[in-house]
Amino acid sequence: MEKEKIDPRAMEKMTSDLTRLLQNKTFDSENEMKVYLNGLIGKELPDVPPKDALSYAQDIIYDAWETESRKERIKMAREALSVSPDCADAYNLLAEEEAGTFEEAKKLYEKAVEAGERALGKKTFKESKGYFWGVLKTRPYMRARAGLAQSLWKSGDHEKAIAHYRDMLRLNPNDNQGIRYILSGCLARLKKYEELDKLLNKREYKNDCGIEWLYAQALLSFVKEGDSQNSRQYLNAAIKSNSYAVDYLVGRRRMPTVVSDTIAMHSEEEGAYYAVNFYEAWVEVSGVIKWLKKRVGIKAFVKVGRNELCPCGSGKKYKKCCGQ
Fold first, then answer.
1. Mean pLDDT throughout 206-234?
2. CB 3 within 8 A of CB 70
3. Buried-most residue among 28, 55, 149, 200 (CB within 10 A)?
């Protein structure tokens, strides 16, 4: 399959090129540097060759992410590894593009993590903890950790996956990758509600208004209190942010088989994305779907033929919707 659009990770190359360019410059003042940077706006950056093998290999990966051919991308990833075996993003690309099973992907992500650790060294982990993603060279490693955690989760090794997600938040509590949202779903899916409660109330994320956060608060409140004033308030806030999500959860909208990778806040795509990825966490809680239906005004009908249309309004037969 060919790429339809450029991988957004390729945009990091501009930051990399600019960093490399500035490293070769000396400025007498901050103002002088600002004048220089303003002079670069709208212009192509001067070409500054990489200083080491790893930088050269990373440049190959940046180019690969801009390449349309999957076969060529894989070839370029292998070329990058021949230049530097410490190029974590080369392993990441192979895990995404070439691996045929979760186990194969996991092994490649493990190699990526090891490569990232070698490339960064212990000093970087110590000095950059707390704002890890803000250091450009850490990003291939953080992508590898995310990929490995996802592979572990899908292969059933849930505790190891959660451990990776927790450690990523320790390194980078600003969480540019949205790891906290994935972790919240994992904790809810495993019914680790006390841990979920602590995560939702962490100082860094307490005022988060992401759809995953708002619906997680509603679910957790129902688990703790049932149909209470608090749980209703949390649910109302979640629905206000995105009403499509609850429509999918209760079956008023047909669950999509494919979710768009271009998602705008408060959109139907965002609601579908949430429902597809977090539905299992909700259905594990006894009575919560019935509660959702009640809160959104879906009446329960006792006598409905299994081949009749479901009264929830989904358009599906009862036996394939609420009658499952």
1. 96
2. yes
3. 149
Q: What is the pTM of this model?
A: 0.84
**Where do we find the tokens 């841990």?**
195
What percent of the chain clears pLDDT 70, i.e. is strictly above it? Answer: 94
DSSP secondary structure letter of residue 94: H
| Structure-block tokens of residue 246 | 């609850």
> Mean pLDDT of all residues in the chain?
90
The crossing angle, in degrees rounded to 10, of helices 88-97 and 53-65 is 30
Amino acid 292 reads L
Please enumerate in sequence order all residues whose Cβ is within 8 A of that of 170, keeping only pairs 6 or more positions apart, or say none: 129
Instruction: Give one word for 315, left, alpha or beta, with left for phi > 0 and alpha for psi -120 to 50.
Output: left
What pLDDT shows up at residue 1? 43
Spell out the residues 6+ positions from residue 54 whose beta carbon is closer than 8 angstroms to its own: 84, 86, 87, 119
Asked whether 234 and 247 are in contact (CB, 8 A), the reply is no
Q: Strand pairing partners for 295?
A: none
Nearest to 59 by CA among 83, 37, 75: 83
φ and ψ at residue 309, rounded to 5 degrees: -65, 140
Examine the pLDDT at 2 and tell me if it is beyond 80: no
